[in-house]
From TrEMBL:
Iron among keywords: yes
Name of this chain's protein: Type-4 uracil-DNA glycosylase
Domain of life: Bacteria
Pfam families (alphabetical): DUF4130 (PF13566), UDG (PF03167)
BP-aspect Gene Ontology terms: DNA repair
Organism: Brevundimonas variabilis
Molecular functions per Gene Ontology: 4 iron, 4 sulfur cluster binding; deaminated base DNA N-glycosylase activity; metal ion binding; nucleotidyltransferase activity
Residues annotated as domain Uracil-DNA glycosylase-like: 320-480
Sequence similarity: Belongs to the uracil-DNA glycosylase (UDG) superfamily. Type 4 (UDGa) family.
Alphabetically ordered keywords of this record: 4Fe-4S, DNA damage, DNA repair, Hydrolase, Iron, Iron-sulfur, Metal-binding, Nucleotidyltransferase, Transferase
Length: 486
């Protein structure tokens, strides 16, 4: 048995060096073991083993090459898994490393038992990091240098070093320390440092802000929307003892039913007169829009003057659909992008080019298709000189559905292809799980056929070229399928 001794529980660099040496020597997973710490008598990196010359195996199978590389995907996964508290995490990653030489695409086999195990542990580590961001509660003390915020936290996995940079970004102008059973970290406004493990009694138990926080938390509690299992799933009980607001939860749960009944029995308050005046003015500015436009030109003019939702304020212009009046196929996207907003035409940006190429491959002429969007104005947020896309919310989709319905009434297509969840919500008036309903022929209320697929921008966002190629083939297959509905 070859035993590699690591410096500490999250010694990824030490594991990496040891695992690589063992793999190059040909030490099989059953004969390799990793442990943390150890006595000075162990005599180096490996127990019970002689040092082998380069280019030889520990097994009789003969020499192997000195160079052995693995994908970045594996390295990133190993860095996550090693933060897991399971005792066999090092052995699991070595088994994967052992197999990767002969199975270079192993990490893509998501049904493999070792890959599934590693991915599940990495997911648990990511979840523990997320919970740490959500449930760390600082309490302020005064020391020789002024205010200092200190928090005690018990993460499910060893994620302190992984998560600490988040708190640096979040609280750059505040001195703080986070104490955990695995270690501690401190920020002094300039440098992030890590220290030894701590105990709960080293952290302050309360501060003067705590009562204000409890009052705020209690005031945001809505008894009518209480879902205890969901709440405990998002805020597991293991974290409650370190959350000041957790002391209020049992009482609020117990009183929820009575408070809900009181809310239901209370008569509705009178409308605010000022709000009613604003709504009336809004309706006058919007103008009558209960009459179906006689043609697409009138519809386009109406969109330019639409004030049904606030999106018109930040957009360059409204972007109506484009295509022949008698198109048999209507394609509905989400909303105009940056280039569409400037050009006033749908699908002329990067996603539009992906759609054009896929239509050609599927045997569909773009000039025969009416292409439009669920929402007619570009929703975005500025970031420097760029305008970054923001997904329209349900209220904005509902406000704009009148224009989409008018387009469908004027075009009367035989089939409607919905690109993504927002387009599906606009056409079907219900939330849709795209992956579950994708490619299925649906009967729409106007007698036409509907089909759901992904938005072309989804293909652009996929970093893995192999997955991107697979998803593009599936997208083209959906276009061919919708062609059969015509």
């Amino acid at each position: 048995m070859r035993v590699a001794t690591l410096a500490h529980e999250i010694d990824f660099d030490g594991w990496r060096v040891a695992a690589r040496a063992l793999r190059l020597e040909g030490v099989e997973p059953a004969q390799a073991s990793f442990r943390v710490g150890g006595s000075a008598e162990q005599g180096g990196l490996f127990d019970q083993a002689e040092t082998l010359a380069p280019g030889t195996r520990a097994s009789p199978a003969g020499p192997i090459e000195q160079n052995f590389t693995v994908s970045k995907t594996f390295v990133d996964l190993a860095q996550q898994v090693i933060l897991h508290r399971s005792a066999d995490r090092f052995d699991l990653m070595y088994r994967l490393l052992w197999r990767l030489r002969d199975e270079p695409d192993l990490m893509k086999v998501t049904s493999d038992i070792d890959v599934v195990d590693a991915l599940d542990r990495a997911k648990n580590v990511s979840r523990a990091s997320h919970k740490m961001k959500a449930f760390v509660r600082f309490r302020e003390i005064e020391d020789a240098d002024g205010p200092n915020a200190i928090a005690w936290f018990e993460p499910a996995h060893r994620v302190l070093e992984k998560t600490a940079p988040f708190f640096v970004r979040r609280f750059q102008n505040m001195r703080w320390s986070i104490l955990t059973p695995d270690g501690s970290c401190s920020w002094d406004l300039k440098t992030l440092t890590f220290g030894p493990p701590a105990t709960a009694d080293q952290a302050p138990q309360e501060d003067e802000v705590e009562e204000f926080w409890k009052t705020y938390y209690a005031s945001t509690f809505n008894p009518a929307r209480l879902k205890t299992k969901t709440m405990q799933g998002e805020m597991p009980k293991r974290y409650w003892k370190n959350l000041p607001e957790a002391a209020l939860i049992p009482e609020m749960i117990a009183a929820a039913k009575g408070r809900s009944e009181t809310m239901v029995a209370t008569p509705a308050s009178a409308p605010n007169p000022r709000t009613e005046r604003i709504v009336a003015q809004f309706d006058r500015e919007t103008g009558p829009q209960d009459r179906l436009p006689v043609d697409l030109n009138e519809l386009a003019a109406g969109v330019q003057g639409c004030r049904r939702c606030p999106l018109w304020r930040d957009a360059t212009q409204g972007v109506c659909g484009q295509g022949p009046r008698n198109a048999r196929l209507m394609i509905v996207g989400e909303q105009p992008g940056d280039q569409e907003d400037l050009a006033g035409k749908p699908f002329v940006g990067p996603a539009g080019r992906v759609l054009d190429d896929a239509l050609i491959e599927a045997g569909i002429e773009r000039s025969d298709v009416y292409v439009t969007n669920a929402v007619k104005h570009f929703k975005h947020e500025p970031q420097g000189k760029r305008r970054l896309h923001k997904t329209p919310n349900a209220g904005e989709v509902t406000a704009c559905r009148w224009w989409l319905t008018s387009e469908r009434d004027l075009i009367r297509p035989r089939a409607v292809l919905m690109l993504g969840a927002t387009a599906s919500l606009a056409v079907l008036d219900r939330k849709v799980a795209v992956t579950r309903e994708r490619g299925q022929a649906l009967a729409l209320d106007d007698g036409s056929a509907g089909l759901i697929t992904v938005h072309p921008s989804y293909l652009l966002r996929l970093p893995d070229p192999v997955l991107r190629a697979q998803q593009r083939e599936a997208f083209v297959a959906d276009l061919r399928r919708v062609r059969t509905l015509l």
